[in-house]
Amino acid sequence: MPHDLPKAYDPGAIEPRWADYWVLEKLFHVETPPADSPTPTFTLTLPPPNVTGNLHMGHMLEHTEIDILIRWKRMQGIPTLWLPGTDHAGIATQLMVERQLASEGINRRDMTPASFSGR
User: Fold this and answer.
1) Rounded (5°) CA angle 37-39-40
2) Nearest to 93, CA basis, from 83, 84, 104, 85
3) Is 44 in contact with 69 (CB distance < 8 Å)?
4) Which band of pLDDT confidence, cut at 50, 70 and 90, is reported for residue 51?
């Protein structure tokens, strides 16, 4: 039975169904142990994508290693948290922001915190 696949992936046509299924099946649900629990926990942080948007083999390696460690700890019955979005590239982010400001004729040193946050 032949299946015609679209030439491009349309996440809007696929992702909502699977996201609902994951929530319904509680696939990401982990009970938080009480603060006084002797149960060990395991947490890893997942950095956000680089501000440059350039991915390389190091990203694949890092994400694979983190995925393996989290799954291994979960299989051991240890409550785990894989926390996305912690900043690991502050210098690269600052450089990109400063370039954007410079393209607008603005020097970050001339800005106040209020004027920067209002952008």
Assistant:
1) 125
2) 85
3) yes
4) low
